[in-house]
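Consortium newsletter contribution from the modelling node. Members have asked for a concrete example of what our holo predictions look like. Here is one, prepared for the adenosine-5'-triphosphate complex that several groups have been discussing at recent meetings.
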Amino acid sequence: LVQFILYLFLLILPLGRIVGTVGAVGEALGGLSRIGEVLDVPEEDEGATRLAFAGARPNPDLALVLENVSFRYDDGPAVLDRLTFAVRRGQRVAVVGPSGAGKSTLLNVLVRLYDPVAGVVKVDGQDVRERTRSQVRAGVGYVEQDAPVLAGTLRDNLTLAVPATDAECRTALADVNLLDVLDRSPDGLDAQVGEGGVMLSGGERQRLALARALLARPTTLLLDESTSHLDGLNEARVRDLIDSQSAGCTLVVVAHRLSTVVDSDVILVMDRGRLVAQGTHEELLRTSRLYRELARTQLVR
Ligand code: ATP
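And here is the predicted structure:
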């Protein structure tokens, strides 16, 4: 029976192009590990929970800590190179850097999509290797640049991570400026979004993923802002939304817009896998040539 359900699932889930395995698809969708649990697909990192916790007591004031974190894809060069930084709970952090600097990879490492080849990542004061990916994902919302959307209805997509009432779904859609998607079809929340969300634009898909992430009330939200996808929802609105929904929510945004960056509590400047500067917008304008260059060119739209 389990096999049959698995086959059925694979047939209806057109996400093979995004990730190769059911477990990985669950991970990529953030909070979708329920799928893996239902199908009894073992988490590949289950053994990690057995790692002895040898460090100091968890410090819940620090939402994220990276200690000398390095990462490479297969045998390639270091994509993250000895990154060290800490993010306090409730901080707004922007990550900027030239294309290929490793910004998206950093977010992937924070949610244990990948484990570093060296160093330690702590979420809420605890080494993530002591938790399963689903445990890490329970508190950390992740909205990727090309946020995956399942074939199914709007409601299906909104309630994948946690259950929500129709009223909550509607509010979540309104919050991310997606009510017009709801109005487009007489089916309302039962409207089909098509394979991989083809009936939605890239921006609508990402905002749907943001609504899904916020419904799960994460303590930390990771947002990979693309230059075009969040056009219908500016950063100030995202921030207001997070402020109103979750006091003390920590926000880490891979930023491509100056408007996102200027009000951040701290900006991390990455270049070729390394953290080359950090500070506020004003500080970095004074101290970092790369940041000045980014602010002048890439970040300005
Ligand atoms: P952008 O601003 O263009 O999105 P980025 O700073 O987010 O770039 P990453 O996407 O993290 O950079 O990529 C960092 C480096 O890792 C790049 O050289 C990229 O080619 C490489 N890379 C990213 N994903 C993979 C992968 N799955 N396999 C192999 N190499 C990868």
